[in-house]
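Tutorial handout. Part one gives the primary structure; part two gives the three-dimensional structure as tokens.
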Amino acid sequence: MRHRGLPVLAGAVILSLLAGSAHADLGKCQKGLEKNGDKLRGSIWKTLAKCKDGYQSAVAKAEPLNVKAGPSCEANLQKVVNFGNPVSAMAKAKAALDKLTTLGTCTDQDLVVLGYLPEGIFGDHWARWLMLASLKAAYESQISFVGATANIFQALETNGCPICANLGRPPCLRASCPLLAGDGVAPLAASEAEAKVLDASTTLFVPISGELITEGCQWPGLTTNEIATVGGPGNALNPSPILGQTACSITIRSQGFTNCGAGGIANTNVSVCQDSDLSDGNQCSTGLCLVNPDANTGGACFNFTTAAGTPGNSVAMSTTQIRIVAPGQVGLDGVACTADDTAPPTPPNTIVVTTGSAQATIMDAGDVPGPDVSSGPFVGAAGPGCAQLSSGNLTGLTLVGAFPGADTVGGPLGDTITATRLQCQ
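Part two.
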């Protein structure tokens, strides 16, 4: 893991970038991520297919697997997925991704906007995560096409393909936990949201129920004493009532890591600030700041504080869409949070969730100079060790996140601050 010029203060690492931090061409960064990620995915997919086809060919000819199918699969996989092989497709992909940041094609600001952990704080975790996402996409599409995929690699493992041992069990597995619902009153507890609405002048507590779904991935060389969270779209959280309306939450994507021991992802605290009125200047002037959404509203600024990781601590960038549906916007089915709702879509927000602490602040709430409102800090809790996580046990894991919404939510709620706490039973 690489950290570049990070100041150490009392055992913690503090990110303190200027609001005017460099912002590369976001389109070029995005294209670089897409190009290298999909190139690796394609290489892995083709190699997995060759291994499976070789297996079926050997079976059809009654040829022992250790004659050709196993050794051939081993040789091909070594060229593609052995990260320790400097000429493998994985190693080449990593080198190409590293160039995106060293050459300035992708800045930390770009990475956050696109849903990645910033390199200035978390080193090359973002790049290794993208490679794991490529591996996950290739492997899961193969399983979709051929249900016996894992069985085939188990058979090849003992017949000349040692590296197949990493593919006989899917490298990425989903796990879920039922959430312990909160009571809807202060203080924030169990699984609950604190919503400061109506220009952050009114505080509501909303119980959260449903399930927390995680997708953990591991691969030699890409995860060292940690499990990567590679999450896709989901709506496992139940709708929540708020001021006579319904809040609908959809997870678009999650990118993060859980610590398993020495060298794993750091313990992370995060504070997010946003200025709702720039007429008196931008008062959120430190941290990793996103571009201003308009001339009167400041971009959200993220400040991270990290310390040495401990087993079970987690941090992730969760891209989430929250839609507020009024009674007259439920569509023909009469049910909120379904595809026919007529409520205008809100832009998905990137929310940092952590087992550390999270807080958020709106400066100049209500688009007038003066009122400043904060929420938090709220503290999460590390989950079980990685052995338990790998077996699907998430008991005790508590994630917290907080984010400001200055002039972005729309509708009657005005400026908002939302803090969430998700606790596994």
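Part three, for discussion. Confidence is low (pLDDT under 50) at residues 1-22. The chain is about 25% helix and 30% strand.
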